[in-house]
Design goal:
- It is a single chain.
- The chain has helices at about 10-70, 80-105, 115-140, 145-165, 170-195, 205-240, 240-275, 285-295, 295-305, 310-315, 325-340, 340-350, 355-375, 380-405, 415-435, 440-465, 465-485.
- The chain has about 475 residues and is mainly α.
- Helix 6 (about 205-240) packs antiparallel against helix 7 (about 240-275) and helix 7 packs across helix 12.
- The protein is globular, with a radius of gyration of 22 Å.
């Protein structure tokens, strides 16, 4: 276990986490491109529909994992009984779900998928759920960036299992089975790397202590995931599998922005837990995290706005060009979704998970009828995206209100405005250059994306002294450490 989670180097851990997340994102993006080109919009939608069901069930384990991460990251906590409680809960949850799934599949026609796909969904629950428990436990020990590198290894193994099964013609079942296989191997590796063995001593007291947090973190994880996954279900219901394919592929384009936010918040959560267990102040770390959580989503939104159909066609094939409007909408609601991440992490890690639960529950209660209405009366795909955008805007300002009450004031750091201005400058530059370039194949499209990135970061470096200071304090020391290791 790390010496003291309160002394965690947030910048160093976040940078290592970002590298892991971006590697993982790149692998995931390659996978999605291949899935989309082999299966087409409808086949891709079928896979993600089944995956949405599996991952919704996994969120129960994820909520327990969040509680375990919180408790073991507290200074002087004994991690062994927490690991025992987490693994015992996971085993019980898998047994319950597997039994219920078999009963539903045998006695009803509710599950229209093939028996193999249903079995693969249960396998994903068993393996990914175990990984969620173990990897969050590992992060809570003081290794948040290591835990993300473990997830990156999982992505490599998963893709390695999935592609042969995909090309062998196993379609959705092959992709789900590949995910389960890669995840199981990685979970066992994390268990070994953690170096902690579960003990039954104090099992009951530890369970009660964990429950005090998990009673909010588990329903929050379920509600939050259902809130995200219900879009896929509603789009599939109102607009069909092809529209689900447009939505899911659009999500993959903006995933790197979420990976950055998640990387920083992952380290923030461990440090905040350590600080609050010692009664120390956390606001400065939260402000610094908010300042850079949206570093990538703002240029991604304006980039999507500049050439939406072109990006979709280039990455996923000509049949995905019709999903350009979905890309703009998805990038739009991600702007507000990503900036909520540090607030939720800070509240949960400072032992105030109830605020996150109530906000997420309220968001779901508003979203369901609004998405159903707009999906039915306006447009199955764009109507649901518009509903999500509306709710995310409201939720962002709700977090600011809670921040004012609980975290010492609202948080709109100055670097955020410099990022917004730089993203607008990038948009203007792309719009000016775009008519001069024939965007008929991938190389000029990648070139103009790279041009936009240069404009954005160049402008940001010129506008923001805080960004220049961050580069000097975080990036340069990391590069020096890498150079020393190589030498």
């Amino acid at each position: 276990m790390a010496d003291n989670t309160a002394d965690l180097d947030l910048g160093s851990e976040a940078l290592s986490s970002v590298a892991a997340k971006f590697t993982m994102s790149g692998l995931g993006f390659v996978g999605v491109v291949l899935f989309a080109r082999v299966l087409g919009p409808a086949g891709t939608g079928q896979y993600y529909f089944a995956l949405a069901i599996a991952l919704l069930l996994v969120r129960v384990d994820a909520g327990v994992g969040v509680a375990i991460k919180k408790r073991v990251s507290e200074v002087d906590a004994d991690p062994r009984p927490y690991l025992a409680v987490g693994m015992a809960f996971h085993l019980a949850w898998v047994v319950v779900v597997a039994t219920a799934t078999l009963a539903v599949a045998h006695y009803t026609t509710f599950l229209s998928m093939t028996p193999l796909v249903v079995a693969a969904i249960v396998a994903v629950l068993a393996t990914v759920g175990l990984f969620q428990i173990l990897n969050r436990f590992y992060a809570g020990l003081g290794y948040p960036s290591h835990s993300l590198w473990a997830d990156t290894i999982r992505s490599v193994l998963t893709l390695g299992f999935q592609l042969p099964l995909l090309f062998a013609g196993y379609e959705a079942f092959g992709l789900l089975a590949g995910l389960a296989g890669g995840t199981l191997i990685t979970a066992l590796g994390v268990f070994v790397a953690a170096g902690v063995r579960p003990v039954l001593e104090g099992f009951g007291d530890t369970g009660e202590d964990l429950f005090a947090f998990a009673r909010y973190s588990v329903p929050t994880a379920v509600v939050e995931d259902f809130y995200k996954r219900v879009d896929v279900i509603l789009i599939g219901f109102f607009a069909g599998d092809a529209a689900v394919g447009f939505y899911e592929t659009a999500l993959r384009i903006v995933t790197p922005a979420q990976q950055l936010s998640g990387s920083i918040s992952n380290a923030l959560g461990v440090k905040v837990s350590g600080l609050t267990s010692l009664g120390q102040e956390i606001r400065e770390d939260v402000v610094n995290t908010v300042a850079y959580s949206g570093l990538l989503i703002l240029p991604m939104f304006f980039g999507a706005l500049a050439m939406p159909a072109t990006l979709m066609r280039t990455f996923f094939g000509s049949s995905f060009g019709a999903g350009g409007a979905a890309l703009v909408g998805v990038a739009g609601f991600f702007v507000f979704y990503i900036y909520q991440d540090p607030f939720a992490t800070a509240l949960e890690s400072s032992d105030r998970p109830q605020f996150v639960f109530w906000l997420r529950s309220a968001a779901l209660l508003i979203h369901l009828p609004l998405a159903g209405m707009l999906g039915y009366y306006w447009d199955g795909l764009l109507g649901i995206i518009a509903a999500t955008l509306s709710v995310e805007i409201v939720l962002f300002f709700a977090y600011q209100y809670v921040s004012k009450k609980q975290l010492g004031g609202i948080i709109f750091p100055r670097p955020l405005w410099a990022q917004l201005g730089s993203a607008v400058m990038m948009y203007v530059a792309i719009i000016a250059v775009r008519p001069l370039i024939l965007l008929s194949w991938w190389l000029p499209v990648v070139g103009i994306v790279g041009f936009g990135a240069v404009v954005y970061f160049g402008t940001l470096t010129a506008l923001s002294p805080h960004f220049r200071l961050t580069l000097g304090n975080v990036l340069l020391p990391a590069l020096q450490r890498i150079e020393e290791r190589v030498a």
